[in-house]
Amino acid sequence: MKKNKKFAGYINLKPINEVLYPSSIQNILMKNYVTEILNGKFYLSPTEVLQAKNVITLNTLISKEVKVKGIVMLSVFFLPFERKKRQIFYKRALKNKKELHFMLDEIVFKSKDDIGNIENRLIFRSSFFTKTRKKTNNFEKNIANSLKTSFV
Amino acid sequence: MIEKKFETNGYIIIKDSTKLVKNLRSKIVNKIKKINPKLKNLSEDKLLNNFHKFFLRKNVNDIRLNLYNSINKIKDIDKIYYSTCKEILDDLIGNEVAMQKKINLSIQMPKDPDSLLDMHSDIYAGESPFQVVVWIPLVDASSTKSMFITKPNHNRKLNSLVLKTNNLTMRDIYEKNKKLFHFINIKFGEILIFSPLLLHGNTINKSSESRFSLNCRFKSLLSPYDVNVKSHRNIPQFYRPLNTKLMTKIGFKYLLKYEEK
After folding, report:
1. What's the average model confidence in pLDDT over A61-71?
2. Quick one: average pLDDT of B49-59?
3. Mutate which of B96, B219, B237 to disrupt the A interface (most A C-beta within 10 Å)?
């Protein structure tokens, strides 16, 4: 039997760490990843419904009806924000034997052992890491002032 | 001692006591020998220093990209690279680190005008002021075969000039202030760690040898990524977390639980 080497791309127009990737760019990146890295066939890349409460497009892609080996997306940042929804999503992906490839994070999900890796990476979706720093507080000012040299 | 030196000069040079750099160089040289099997009997040093005698200048970037991809595919390359200077990085940035996702390779052939990196500070491209560059030469490098850098006490004036000028180019500023820069003198087996906040760059390699060097950026995992302006120099675009400690995971999972609500 011929192996299924088809991978679907998944476009989401939410910013990744506040960086927005246009759909055309996401499409090119995912297509290259599927053909060059996975040696697979690029199937399709639908876009998530911007107005939807849940990730309906992603849920469609991991359903049995879509005959692909896996789904490629730019980042784990595109996964549902709520932990419970992610748990359901992982279960569905496993049940339907769908791989998940997160290109920028360089993480692949193939079994339940990979869940911890994804969840740990989602730490970096916290505003602590994504917020642009423009000001220092008094504690930080004191640290800076304790150094005599200034590089700028 | 290390901190004092770094604060004064903006960089330090250390010896690679791990011998990992030597192993890394052998891997890279073996890949070059696969590209051109006629070079198989040459010593590593001779091959890299005389690279321009065996390969055409017009092909150098294709070869560099080929080697860059191979280097970044080496198993555990991130951990190997980090291990070469972990102890010093512990002192400078701490032991929970974010590492640039790819290790860069520079090849600078003699008299090649196409591999110039004009005077710059990495912060101009949106990189974090909290980062250091770990720069590993694969051959001895000095004078124009190496890179130039300014000192912290000159950087303030030069930086201000770059940010305010309306009619000078980067090259103008470098040429007019050449005496405020110096070339790094470094041997193979040594590692340069510097703050890329300081203006640095290279000029045409006027020596008769090629320069091969690797570079990669590191910062404290928990220090700010985007400072003053938003860019893509963050996780997951530019950096990867290399070692996240247990309590950091526990703490952030607690924080996220409430952010997610």
Report:
1. 95
2. 96
3. B237
Query: Taking Cα atoms as reference points, which of B35, B27, B130, B133 lies closest to residue B77?
Result: B27
- Half-sphere exposure (CA, 13 Å, Cβ side) for A45? 22
pLDDT at A44 (0 to 100): 84
- Kindly state the tokens that stand for B85: 């200077």
Q: Does A16 touch chain B (CB under 8 A)?
A: yes
Give the other-Cβ count within 10 Å of A14's Cβ. Answer: 14
**Chain B residues touching residue A149 (CB < 8 angstroms):** 7-8, 152-153
Lookup result for tokens 């010593």: B43
The partner residue sitting opposite B259, judged by closest CB among A18, A75, A126, is: A126
Bridge partners, A11 (sequence order): A47
**B2-9 vs B152-164: helix axis angle to the nearest 10?**
40
Q: Chain B neighbours among A 74-103 (CB < 8 Å)?
A: 75-77, 81-83, 102
What ipTM score was computed for the predicted complex, to two decimals? 0.85
